[in-house]
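Q: Make up one entry.
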Amino acid sequence: MEAFVKSSINNGIGTITFFHPQSNSLPGEILRKLTSEIELMGANAEAKVIVLQSEGEKAFCAGASFDELISIKDLETGKKFFSGFAGVINAMRKAPKFVIARVQGKAVGGGVGIASAADYTLASSSASVKLSELAVGIGPFVVGPAVERKVGSSAFCQLAINASEWQTATWAKEKGLYAEIFEEVQDLDKAVNELAHKLSTSNPEAMMLLKKAAWQGTDHWDTLLIERAEMSGKLVLSEFTVNAINKFKAK
């Protein structure tokens, strides 16, 4: 299958699905399409709530595309690539509707950022998390504000510093990243559908105001995340990072 981002609206529930054959990794094109679809769904009056999910069973999202990272040769290109993650997170943040994330498998780097930027995240018991950026010489700068807002400074530092270790879905639930976890994907899907249905029949204005209140104090993210993207864009050019990424790709 080829990579895609697709969306649909059914009975007030807007669903956005992304896929990439490399464990749902995120090259720049997919990031831009995700941002656009989230913005369009947020502006579509037919959608009362947004469900964000990925295709497949094993991985929710493997984060940044290593193929694209290794191809970056200048600061502007690096900044543009990492700004793609800023675009997705800010689109989720500013959508005037609740975003439910369905995390059916492991989440790495930018995938953890997406799970954190959702207003309500439901996951499978196999949905371990890892912020692997430092292990390849970068750092979770762009996704950091979203992750820290969700789990707190201590848990964020634990993920960011111990960058090669997975944390379990149970750990993620205890820290507040996941609202609930489920042993079976069928139960996860049932919970996602039930919550989305409830929200689709709730007062849109009340939900919009509640979301605005919940995200109070984050208006500066429009500039902050782009500044963070430039930091990552600079680091990805370093010899250390190039060598580290090549070692990861060789595994």
